[in-house]
Amino acid sequence: MNKTLNSIRQGVNKNPIIIASLGLFVIMLLFVPRFATLGNFISLSGQISYLGIATVGLAFVLVGGGIDLSLGSVISITGVVTALMIVAGLPILVAVLIALLLGAAIGLLNGFFIAVLGVNAFMMTLITQMLFEGIALIVTEAQSITGLPAVFVEMWYQTILYIPVPVLIMLFFFIIGHIVLTKSVFGRRLFVTGANKKAAKLVGVKADTVQMTAFIFSGLMGAIAGVILTSRLGVGSPAAGSNIILDIVSAAVIGGNSLFGGKGSIIGAAFGVLLLGLISNGLSLLGVEWAHTMIVKGAVILLAVIIDVVNSKVAQKQMLTV
To answer: Which residues, other chains included, contact 258 with Cβ-Cβ below 8 Å and sequence gap of 6+?
Structure first.
């Protein structure tokens, strides 16, 4: 029992975002009208499910020393492709599988150019973000794809033990992601690669393959998020992922996944997603305008980035003094 408590205590100390998220949750329970209702909790869980899944993918990329700005376009294009194929008469499962393969292929494209050819991750994923966002708009003529069957749209509302299926999918990937990062050989190699890619190669780590795998996984997670969001919206929107990338990056960084690589956790990312969701939900219930909500989010993100920069410099100084 004591070992368990100590483990929990250490986890909280390493991820102060946990305290911030749970503290905000309690405050909202006490002071925000209509927050503690079943309908609002369902709405909140829906808002963070696809965001959480995509954030898991980005966390892997950040730990590996990269950045993936293309996740927004992955969400848009995979959602559009899923909708187009279903409306065309393909079985839902086939359409979803093709969309997932497309997401993984975009991740492979990013990973190859970044890890193997050495293209800057920021520039490469910004290019693919613009490229596939544009393709989604052209294919749909900038119109949402309607006419999705009820069975696909209702997937969003299905529950198991009263928990929405999208939330269970998100929790599944949180757990799998945490296990892979903390318990597997791949996870250790990913941390080493993100901390110092050249040094990782010197000790025998296939750093290019490790980093490329992280991008493929990120693309796959973006595709799953795209399918879920399309089900939630009931249409395939070419602009579905336009603004989501800001929240994805924010949640990952707030959760302690360093922009400098080699540091991060899925637990931190999960609570980063929760914190952002609570902020948006709470301010919306209080009638705060969206512009002001963006300011609050920006302030929180700025604080997280400052902490990340300070921690990185402290770590560098400690290495120099050893």
So the answer is: 62, 264, 308, 311, 312
